[in-house]
Design a protein that fits this description.
149 residues, mainly alpha, Cell cycle control protein cwf14, BUD31, BUD31/G10-rel_CS, nucleus
Length: 149
């Protein structure tokens, strides 16, 4: 995540409204630092990055909700936040499409990285799974992000 309020001489200050959400973005930044510095003992290799994916998702969802759901920030501030890397623009673009409203991460829909050229198990609706079958995405730790759930 980019540093907050690191204005150089040639950089423009953030648009109006940034001060209102700066504290929340700082909390996400602190959570990210904690996740990056957390102990990796006893975890599998792919489990170590799950908290980072989850915090990135939460931060992007926060900005998405502010702009699209609550209409609490301006288009100028929203575009600035995306440009500065505070939110994942590609993930937000998918959330706007039908069927992807709850998508956890972009890796779960990339078919090139899977064995059978299919999406991740977390994209399967829960009603199509066997009873008591627990699912857990290898990429991000998601336990189900199908929009029909």
């Amino acid at each position: 995540m980019p540093p907050i309020r690191s204005h150089g001489r040639n950089k423009k200050p953030p648009p109006d409204g940034f001060d209102d959400i700066e504290d929340t973005l700082l909390e996400f930044s602190n959570k990210m630092k904690d996740a990056e510095n957390a102990s990796h003992e006893g975890k599998k290799r792919h489990e170590m990055i799950w908290p980072i994916f989850q915090i990135t998702h939460q931060r992007s969802r926060y900005i998405y909700d502010l702009y699209y759901e609550k209409e609490a920030i301006s288009k100028q501030l929203y575009d600035w936040l995306l440009k500065q890397g505070y939110a994942d623009a590609n993930l937000i673009a998918k959330w706007k499409k039908q069927g992807y409203e709850k998508l956890c991460c972009l890796r779960c829909i990339q078919t090139k990285e899977t064995n059978f050229s299919a999406t991740c198990i977390c994209r399967v609706p829960k009603d199509q799974l066997q009873e008591n079958q627990t699912i857990e995405c290898v990429s991000c730790g998601c336990r189900g992000c199908a929009s029909s759930d």
